[in-house]
Amino acid sequence: MTTAQKQDKEIFRIIFEENWEDFKEEHPVFDCDQYEKPVQKMLNCGKESGGYCEYICMECGRDLRRVCFSCKSCFCLSCAKVYADNMVCQVGKVLHPGVIYRHNVLTVPEQLRQLFYTNRHDGALLSQLMRTGYQCLEDVVSTVKKSELKIGAIIVVQTHGRSGQYNPHLHVIMTDGGVNTETGKWVGLGYLPYDILHKKWQYYLLNMVSDFFGKGVKILINNLWKKYKKGFVAYVTKGKVPKKCKGLARYLAKYVASPPIAVSRIIQYDGQMVTYWYRDHKTKKKKEETVPVFTFIGRMVQHIMVKGFKRVRYYGLQATKSFKKWCEIIKEGIRKIGKVVKGTYEIVSPKTYQERYQDVTGTDPLTCRYCGGEMELWKIWVPEYGFIFDEEERIKQDTYGVKKWLEGRGGHPVRPASKRIQLPLFPLQI
């Protein structure tokens, strides 16, 4: 990789390295753990200062590889794909066999976005927004089918719009129907009337905002009722959610697990200004925007959630605690209407560092370059505690009880194969 290519890849981190401290001085509201810790994790991602593992060849002892820890944060552009993949693995475990899923988007009108931005440090607000979205959709499905139905919903809250500005909205993967709570039968949804969805979402959202903020928003609520007579924007994406989990992985990564910006969208940074592009919702064309570097940083960090906040939540038939119970009820409900439950969703396991490296480079990073042997974990170092695992120290302390055997060999540090762990050939101070 050339120097220019490395700089392009690291441009997001470079922007924060050069300006983060000055940005906090000018905007002290961001000088707190909610923003500081994720930013520092991102800055130390892939660096020795953030911790590392060492692997060594136990056959010949000649090859040593130090693997620095990644931060595994959705704010870090390098780790965003890993974050998305891990989320998809989690979601793939709670998909009901035989059930079709739909993708809905519930938006917040621009007049309410300032309220959400001002209270972005209160996780209860977004939590209530997510539950309100589930309640709204369950009411819509029950209204359309004219019976009390229990639906399933996987809801992800996203606070950034395409330009990076604060725009809270919900992405919902919901069951295309539900279980009749009286008969236990499965009822398919089919067509979803947009006018009902728009009006119901307006009703639920405005009531939630009114209950959360009290009398101070009464005038604003009344104005929104008058202005949006057809309801708020809520839509169902074209097509159904893919039936295979691998297709679902790509689908979710695109819609619900993306960071505020991709590194490929940053066109230029000159130390003062940042130019980036996004696809405009109205024109569907690329639009470039150049902003001061502090504005760019602000647009990025404002989307960092409070610590412990869960961006992905499961409701109704998808609730993790009652998933197994509902799974059997759904299967029986589908059989009652004369349909066959076909197949199950494929569960995708999270990939290890070794597997991801092989996917990108085609080579195994833990194969010795000299003898082809398999490299073993040697040491683990973390900045908070130092070495938390040290195989070399264990050998020095005779943890494996081979000190006498080594002395009989003249100190030559080679373990017998029957001992299962092969020591390296270079000298050790035992």
Describe the structure.
The chain is α+β, with helices and mostly antiparallel strands and 430 residues long. The chain is 38% helix and 20% strand. It has 2 domains: 32-71 and 354-419, no CATH class; 80-260 and 303-350, Replication Protein E1, Chain: A. The protein has 14 helices and 15 strands. Strands 9-3-6-5-13 form a 5-stranded antiparallel sheet, with helices on one face. A 4-stranded antiparallel sheet has the order 2-1-14-15. α6 (123-145) runs antiparallel to α7 (194-213) and α7 (194-213) packs antiparallel against α8 (218-227). Mean pLDDT is 81; it is low at 1-5, 343-347 and 411-430.
Number of domains: 2
Beta-strand residue fraction: 15-25%
Shape: globular
Give the CATH level 1 class of the largest domain. Answer: Alpha Beta
Element pattern in H and E: HHHEEHEHHEEEEEHHEHEEEHEHHEEHH
Radius of gyration: 27 Å
Q: What's the helical proportion of residues?
A: 25-40%
Class computed from helices, strands and strand pairing: alpha+beta
Mean of all residue-level pLDDT scores: 81
State the separation between the terminal residues, measured CA to CA: 42 Å
Main β-sheet description: 5 strands, antiparallel
**Count of separate DSSP helical elements:** 14
CATH architecture of the largest domain: 3-Layer(aba) Sandwich
Please state how the strands of the largest beta sheet are arranged side by side: 9-3-6-5-13
Number of strand segments: 15
Which parts are unreliable, with pLDDT below 50 for 5 consecutive residues or more?
Answer: 1-5, 343-347, 411-430
- What is the fold-level CATH name, i.e. the topology of the largest domain? Replication Protein E1, Chain: A
